Input
Amino acid sequence: MDIAVIGAGPAGLIASKLLDRAGYKINIIEEHKTIGKPVSCSGLIGKDFFDHFKQFDFEESIKNRIDGAKIFLGTNSFELKRKGVSFVVDRAMFDQSLSNGLEISLEERFQSFERKNGIISIKTNKRKFNTDLLIGSDGPSSRVRSQEFDYNMKHYKGYQVRIKADLDSNNLVEVHIQRPFFTWIVPEGDGIFRIGTISDSPKESLYRFLEERGIKNAPIEIQSGVIPIGKGINYRDRVFLLGDAACQVKPLSGGGVYYGALAAEALANSIISGRYSSYPQLCKQLIDKEISRGLLLRKIYEKLSDDELRAVFDFIKSKKHILNKSGSFDEHYKTIISLTKDPKIFSLLPIFFKAYLRTL
Ligand SMILES: Cc1cc2nc3c(=O)[nH]c(=O)nc-3n(C[C@H](O)[C@H](O)[C@H](O)COP(=O)(O)OP(=O)(O)OC[C@H]3O[C@@H](n4cnc5c(N)ncnc54)[C@H](O)[C@@H]3O)c2cc1C
Output
């Protein structure tokens, strides 16, 4: 059986690797000339990912270990600490390590597909070929998605610099709450930081932030990209959507590597079992609940007034001992639920309710 995989990002590569090991013939199409480049990622990946995907060797791509975060709302802040909660990777090396041993057709751009007599016919900028199954792991602006699937989604624009700076947080991430997302400082090591933000005009917002922080060095590298937030179906008649193409992204942080990887494993298992429609079911169990609830929390977060946001921030700050114990890097809804053990959260219900009404 032939499987065409469009896009050699982590999601497509993990699915390909697992299917290749199971003996399937995989045709991977990647539009860029180098795997993993250009990078549009801060490379912050939670420990759970590395624990789950021990079968792959990411050792060389890991640049730094993260032991917690400093969270800021303006000048108000608190610190969360957990040794080794996440790791900072070189995303190009990370993707390249996944591509080892796979044959990939580079500088080839997928254009469209057609179903004919049980066969899927693919058109790229270089050729036409037939396949039995098609996996669209072609990122946030997926062409496979736009041809076949209807998604209720939004693209958020991100901009990031790698820059030398004289900051003291070598193993802590800084998160500055700034809606619609936040501005981050991720220490890469060797005095280099990945500083980025997501907004309607992220470049301007980021340079303003750098100026306020007195960071004046010229960036070593500039990276930009989009984060797809939303949901939709991910399987129809031998065509699958995977990773950012399927919005398999944490709605509150925009991180997508772990969810995309879990979905890639689920997809490979569905194909190997011959029960293709089990893919959406497995995704439902693994990630969809977090995504749906995260989408609701995101809506509320975006609609809180500044005063309401300050009240929520103060409440979370007062519960940092709970977060230190049971907060999860990858499951934000579960983390918020852990705070409901404190009945004081009910004092925030009118705030959440009012903000929710504003989303309607
Ligand atoms: C600024 C920023 C920071 C981020 N930081 C983090 C982070 O710290 N941690 C985290 O987990 N996530 C982060 N993310 C999200 C993360 O980068 C994505 O979720 C992840 O890369 C998704 O993997 P993927 O394989 O689904 O898609 P991608 O990595 O986007 O890979 C898709 C591949 O498809 C190729 N492609 C696209 N169209 C075509 C076509 N027509 N033909 C052929 N090939 C095609 C692309 O070239 C690309 O190689 C960040 C995103 C942004 C924008």
About this structure: Residues 6-12, 29-32, 40-45, 109-110, 137-139, 143, 158, 160, 196, 225-227, 243-244, 249, 254-258, 260 surround flavin-adenine dinucleotide (CB under 6 Å).
